[in-house]
Design goal:
Helix content: under 10%
Order of helices and strands: EEEHEEE
Distance between the termini: 43 Å
Radius of gyration: 15 Å
Length: about 120
Amino acid sequence: MLTTTTVAAGCRVRYRDHARSDPDWAQILGEGEDSDPAGGLIAPDSPLALVMLGLRAGEQRQLTTGGRAGAPPLTRWVTILEVVPPGGPAPGAEPADNLGTPNAVAAGSGASPAPPMTA
């Protein structure tokens, strides 16, 4: 099985939104698939997916949402913790082959801390 280290459509992604305390899982769907953000299924053109696409485990990027109807935009940081390729094991599962090849790539202990939050 090929290991995908970059977030792409079809991948499951464990990430930390630094506005929350616990990491979350999301699956970035392909074009035309029905999204369910509450269930962790996000469209590839959603703000969260657009921020995650192309990132690798341990990388982070700013996510800015809102700013409509007079509300100020909310800016926060999202860090990728783990990337599971399409068809890869369920989150937390052991590697599927006997060669020690990982099916998911997790951020190592060398991941940089989150930048300071901005108001």
